[in-house]
Write a structure and sequence with these properties.
Number of helices of chain A: 0
Strand content of chain A: over 45%
Order of helices and strands of chain B: EEEEEEEEEEE
Structural class of chain A: mainly beta
Largest sheet of chain B: 6 strands, mixed
Radius of gyration of chain B: 13 Å
Number of strands of chain A: 11
Oligomer: heterodimer
Number of helices of chain B: 0
Shape of chain B: globular
Distance between the termini of chain B: 40 Å
Strand content of chain B: over 45%
Distance between the termini of chain A: 36 Å
């Protein structure tokens, strides 16, 4: 049981390049999330998904797209990377139920630098 | 916008001491509350959920005060390994749009 995994762990892009971050979970969780974490800003929700084939915008969705074609995978895409997207990206998943049990489990993060 | 606020610290505390910090939330409809621990350059990991009646896990005690809209975390007999950033997280309305996190409180336990 690997939990939540993310690939790649590190990446350096040039402005305008595109890339996809992959998140995978093996806990059969329905909900998945993408956050970014910047110094002094805390964790901010980019997009989330409540099930296979569904996605929704979070707090800071601009410049990102997502897809959830399979229940266990949640992809985050940057079509044209900008320096403002330099950040640490965390994926998380949860199993919906009683409010107090909506614990989110996080992946190890992807450190992205856009030059 | 819903907000969750924490004192960023750092809190410098001698080993063995008791330390407490709070987290305030702005939306009275918030339904579930959590404390996460984050080590430098690592992912957040759940420390404990916070229940209405308060709950304890070893040296850690979490409390919820709905009237004043804050949660608290108390660490007793602090260890060097407790040094980390502690994030509070609130799920407003039990919705699917995830947790709103505070910016974290940085705790440094000094020998």
């Amino acid at each position: 049981n690997a939990g939540v995994t993310q690939t790649p762990k590190f990446r350096v892009l040039k402005t305008g390049q595109s890339m996809t971050l992959l998140c995978a979970q093996d806990m059969n969780h329905e909900y998945m999330y993408w956050y970014r974490q910047d110094p002094g800003m805390g964790l901010r929700l980019i997009h989330y998904s409540v099930g296979e084939g569904t996605t929704a915008k979070g707090e800071v969705p601009d410049g990102y797209n997502v897809s959830r074609l399979k229940k266990q995978n949640f992809l985050l895409g940057l079509e044209s990377a900008a320096p403002s997207q330099t950040s640490v990206y965390f994926c998380a998943s949860s199993f919906p139920g009683l409010a107090a049990t909506d614990t989110q489990y996080f992946g190890p993060g992807t450190r992205l630098t856009v030059l | 916008r819903k907000e969750v606020e924490q004192d960023p610290g750092p809190f410098n505390v001698p080993e063995g001491a008791t330390v407490a910090f709070n987290c305030t939330y702005s939306n009275s409809a918030s339904q579930s509350f959590f404390w996460y621990r984050q080590d430098c350059r690592k992912e957040p990991k759940l420390l404990m959920s916070v229940y209405s009646s308060g709950n304890e896990d070893g040296r850690f005690t979490a409390q919820l005060n709905r009237a004043s809209q804050y949660i608290s975390l108390l660490i007793r007999d602090s260890k060097l390994s407790d040094s980390a950033t502690y994030l509070c997280a609130v799920n407003i309305g039990g919705g699917a749009d995830g947790l709103t996190f505070g910016k974290g409180t940085h705790l440094i336990i000094q020998p």
